Amino acid sequence: MSDYEAVISWKRGEQEKYTDQKYSRVHQWRFDGGLTIPASPSHHIVPVPYSNPDYIDPEQAFVASLSSCHMLFFLDLCSREGFVVDDYTDHAVGTLERIGRNKMAMTKVILKPEAHYSGDKIPTAEDLERIHHKSHELCFIANSVTTEIITEIIS
């Protein structure tokens, strides 16, 4: 078993009343390696200036986490099977929608991985389908959520 930590911090601005709902929601994510990432609620949900569209939001991080986990398993499986992956890009998209009264959820994430290969052993479409399926089954993050996750392989 492993534990993973993040420190999430926010501070009210001196001039912000707070109880009037007019306060910045910009905050920071700090990780044990020392990396600090500026974060904000999505500007689709909380309007600017109380959010910052240039900063990462939890919904984007959720999509990125699923995509990253899937990619890492994909790279590992390809390596084990002797396929040389030269690059990998995923233009993942998550859908946030209402699932009940006053309740929202990330209901679907579509992974759109595209990779290029070199060497003597190039994966077939069937190989890629099998490896992506296995990557999904192994992904810790995918196994942790109820969100529908779809992989659309781009070749």
Structure description:
The chain is an alpha+beta fold and 155 residues long. It has two domains: 56 residues, GMP Synthetase, Chain A, domain 3 (2-Layer Sandwich), CATH 3.30.300.20; 94 residues, K homology (KH) domain (GMP Synthetase, Chain A, domain 3, 2-Layer Sandwich), CATH 3.30.300. Helices cover 24% and strands 30% of the residues. The strands form three sheets. The chain has a three-stranded antiparallel β-sheet with strand order 1-2-3, with no helix packed on it. A three-stranded mixed β-sheet has the order 5-6-8, covered by helices on one side. The chain is elongated and about 65 Å long. It starts with 5 loop residues before the first strand and ends with a strand. The mean pLDDT is 96.
In short:
With 155 residues, the protein is an alpha+beta fold. It has two helices and eight strands; from the N terminus they run βββαββββαβ. The chain has helices at residues 58-80, 125-138, and strands at residues 6-9, 27-31, 36-39, 84-90, 93-100, 103-111, 113-118, 148-151.
